[in-house]
Amino acid sequence: MAYKYVDNYREQGARKKLVDELRKKGIEDENVLQAIGKIPRHYFFDETFWKQAYKDIAFPIGEGQTISQPYTVAYQTELLHIKKGDRVLEIGTGSGYQACVLAEVGAKVFTIERQEKLYERTRNLLPRMGYKAHFFLGDGSKGIASHAPYDKIIVTAGAPTVPETLLSQLKIGGTLVIPVGDERSQQMVTILKTGENDYERHVLDTFRFVPLVGERAW
Ligand code: SAM
């Protein structure tokens, strides 16, 4: 079934401008920029708010949650250095936009959301847009053990600490990208798993995410 929304020159032009803006802000990975240039972000918005879809802002998606700012999506995806076929676990499906970007750059996507309404909405929307992902409902702070290990893990909500379980579900050579901090601001942390119990950790820029809520989180 074709998706009911349209994607015409107006939206395509706005998308091109957004890509230029992200490039100016420092995003360099052409695969990521191409993905953002291709995915109709307005499909994730109520039609009343389409004008907001190509601004570089986070926006409410219901249930007190947000679709992440395009810059943040691009920044986190770039840090993952995804290779075609990488098994990527996303914690915090939300709107599904980040999952589409991951799929577009070649990932095999496993994504988990704790809010049932968002989970239902997104697992219906993405296939209609032509995107494949494996959808799970539950507490992603514990990861998804049944499908581990993963090449990459991305957390799209702010965590108080790095959940050990996520590190244990990462392959050696794999990367975790997670915002860590308090409720007001978090620093983006990348952790490269270099051995069974060895990690290389980098603390990067500051962001503001909705909280990661769960057993190994807030
Ligand atoms: N990746 C999303 C997107 O592209 O729209 C961003 C969504 S929002 C910034 C973060 C999401 O994480 C929210 O939908 C929230 O319900 C979800 N979340 C928070 N804690 C969670 C947990 N423990 N497990 C799974 N999802 C969680």
TrEMBL record:
Chief place of localization? cytoplasm
Question: Which branch of life, at top level?
Answer: Bacteria
Entry keyword annotation includes rRNA-binding: no
Q: Keywords, A to Z?
A: Cytoplasm, Methyltransferase, S-adenosyl-L-methionine, Transferase
EC number(s) recorded for this UniProt protein: 2.1.1.77
Looking at the keywords, is Secreted present?
Answer: no
Could you say which enzyme class this protein belongs to?
transferase
The subcellular localization recorded is: Cytoplasm
State the function annotated in the UniProt record: Catalyzes the methyl esterification of L-isoaspartyl residues in peptides and proteins that result from spontaneous decomposition of normal L-aspartyl and L-asparaginyl residues. It plays a role in the repair and/or degradation of damaged proteins.
Protein name as it appears in the record? Protein-L-isoaspartate O-methyltransferase
**Which organism is the protein's source?**
Mucilaginibacter panaciglaebae
